[in-house]
Recover the amino acids of this structure.
């Protein structure tokens, strides 16, 4: 019989993935105006790449490999915004400052999506827990 | 006839199917933001009902196996993902109620066996 604990693990993997996405989005928001990073370049917006665990669900069932996993955090290659501000210490020879390619509105909507997805996973985990407790009642 | 009759077997296999469906739906929700992911679902009710309709129902129900089916035909978002969180949540609730109903039936039947054995 397939284990109900599998469902708990699957939902936990979804929660972990969404939390990582929230971390990265918060990082993007915090650095929306960072004109210089460790490499001397303006901050580049980052994104989490998610991958479904296992090839097909029936293959991996019972091996607890289903669920979702983050396979990496990649930089968004889009160019940054250029703003004319000659007095800025990071301004180029023409007086333009390159700001990060972070759009605050995009990040805020991403944050809402991530938070809602996290809640959906919590709900699924709660349902699995309830079912597990119902099974215990059969034995009572 | 053994201690467990056909109804007990069907209820147990139904619990198994609902438990698998819970996992499949949880997996859909976990992958709601995975690019290119296609949702799966298990129709354990029709699998069980066709087993019940066959000649040797007892054997057919015992041999039944549930396989999740992937829906490759639809696309909800531009990244190829076809998970609709709302419909997954409603399926999840529906499946939970079904599981709880089956668990309640199983509990009753266990109670009958217990009282037949003189336990309390």
């Amino acid at each position: 019989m397939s284990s109900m604990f599998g469902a708990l693990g699957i939902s936990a993997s979804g929660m972990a993935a969404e939390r990582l996405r929230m971390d990265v989005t918060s990082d993007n928001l915090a650095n929306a105006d960072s004109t210089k990073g460790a490499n001397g370049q303006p901050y580049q917006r980052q994104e989490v790449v998610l991958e479904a665990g296992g090839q097909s669900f029936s293959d991996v069932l019972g091996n607890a490999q289903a669920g979702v996993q983050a396979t990496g955090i990649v930089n968004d290659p889009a160019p940054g915004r250029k703003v004319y501000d000659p007095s800025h210490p990071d301004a180029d020879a023409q007086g333009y400052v390159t700001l990060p390619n972070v759009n605050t509105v995009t990040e805020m909507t991403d944050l809402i999506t991530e938070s809602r997805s996290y809640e959906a996973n919590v709900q699924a985990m709660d349902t699995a827990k309830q079912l597990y407790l119902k099974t215990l009642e059969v034995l009572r | 006839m053994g201690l467990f009759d056909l109804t007990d077997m069907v209820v147990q296999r139904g619990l198994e199917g609902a438990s698998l469906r819970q996992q499949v739906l949880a997996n859909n929700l976990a992958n709601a933001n995975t690019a290119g992911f296609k949702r799966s679902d298990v129709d354990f009710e029709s699998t069980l009902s066709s087993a019940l309709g066959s000649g040797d129902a007892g054997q057919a129900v015992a041999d039944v196996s549930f396989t999740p089916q992937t829906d490759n035909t639809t696309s909800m978002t531009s990244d190829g993902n076809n998970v609709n969180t709302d419909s997954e949540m409603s399926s999840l609730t529906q499946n939970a109620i079904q599981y709880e109903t089956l668990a309640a039936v199983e509990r009753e039947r266990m109670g009958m066996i217990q009282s037949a054995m003189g336990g309390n």
The interface with chain B takes residues 1-4, 6-7, 10-11, 13-14, 17-18, 21, 49-52, 56-58, 61, 66-68, 113-114, 116-117, 120-121, 123-125, 127-128, 130-131, 134-135, 137-140 of chain A (CB under 8 Å).
